[in-house]
Write a structure and sequence with these properties.
Number of helices: 4
Shape: globular
CATH architecture: 3-Layer(aba) Sandwich
Number of domains: 1
CATH class: Alpha Beta
Largest sheet: 5 strands, parallel
Strand order of the largest sheet: 2-1-3-6-7
CATH topology: Rossmann fold
CATH superfamily: Response regulator
Helix content: 25-40%
Structural class: alpha/beta
Number of strands: 7
Radius of gyration: 13 Å
Distance between the termini: 31 Å
Order of helices and strands: EHEHEEEHEEH
Length: 129
């Protein structure tokens, strides 16, 4: 069943290093009609995909901790391009970089319905970079 204000044809970048969770995210997003970019498991590959620019990115889901590396360079690259994103993490939001305090932060384990609703919300929010 589609949620109103759906993700149909929206290109969602998934940056997640846990294989099983990445697969769950891909499945949930695909069921909502989204086109999934990735999943990519590390900062270098995420930045390469963003910098390449051949794929339009409508929104992104970023795991904060990728094999011990923080995802913040990816967040900065998305902000520079005006791409909305949210964090998904096992950490509380207040443990993150204060520069990103206004970015939605979902705590793992993720509820897919909540994730989809959060993505729809950030896609609907006004903001031109």
């Amino acid at each position: 069943m589609m949620v109103s204000g759906s993700l149909t044809d929206r290109r969602i970048l998934v940056v997640e290093d846990e294989y099983i969770l990445a697969r769950q995210l891909v499945r949930a997003l695909t069921q909502e009609g989204a086109v999934v970019l990735g999943p990519v498991p590390d900062v270098a590959r995420a930045l390469a995909l963003i910098d390449e620019g051949s794929e339009k990115i409508d929104a992104a889901i970023l795991d904060v901790n990728l094999v011990g590396e923080k995802v913040y360079p990816v967040a900065d690259a998305l902000l520079d391009r005006g791409v909305p994103f949210l964090f998904a993490s096992g950490y509380d939001a207040d443990e993150g970089d204060p520069r990103f305090a206004a970015i939605p932060h979902l705590v793992k384990p993720l509820m897919m319905k909540s994730l989809v609703a959060a993505l729809i919300a950030i896609l609907a929010a006004p903001g031109d970079g």
